[in-house]
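Task: sequence design from structure.
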């Protein structure tokens, strides 16, 4: 990740194969670690990225991921955007329902990814593709418990 210059610097990665999915996961983990996300938060981000990248490949026919470090008043975060020019999602409410699957998966892709981040948005329409944006912010580690 480049040093911060006051502007955010995005990394755009193609999603067209299983190898690309692995590269997206690796890049998200690197960014998250460098931004100061804890191990649990890193795992959540990588899991969300993995699900969303796979959806981009399988349901959208491929596309791209964009990873952007954020700084909002000294609070660091990571924005992940996944986009494709596929068929779009016909019924977004249904697709966001836990357990819904349009294929052979577990039905946790979109709804599960939404729970792993603080901000989540889907822009889609039949025939015009899908863009999913997920944002997570570094949260403080809770203080250690003291024995009374």
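Answer:
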């Amino acid at each position: 990740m480049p040093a911060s210059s006051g502007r955010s610097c995005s990394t755009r990665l193609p999603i067209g194969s299983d190898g690309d999915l692995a590269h997206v996961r690796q890049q998200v983990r690197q960014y998250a670690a460098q931004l100061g996300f804890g191990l649990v938060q890193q795992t959540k981000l990588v899991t969300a990225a993995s699900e969303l990248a796979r959806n981009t490949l399988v349901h959208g026919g491929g596309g791209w991921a964009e990873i952007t470090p954020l700084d909002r008043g000294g609070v660091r975060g990571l924005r992940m955007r996944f986009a494709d020019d596929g068929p779009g999602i016909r019924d977004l409410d249904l697709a966001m329902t836990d357990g819904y699957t349009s294929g052979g998966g577990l039905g946790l892709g979109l709804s599960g990814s939404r729970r792993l981040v603080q901000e989540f948005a889907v822009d889609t329409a039949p025939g015009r593709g899908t863009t999913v944006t997920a944002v997570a912010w570094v949260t403080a580690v809770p203080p250690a418990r003291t024995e009374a």
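The first helix runs from residue 18 to 35.
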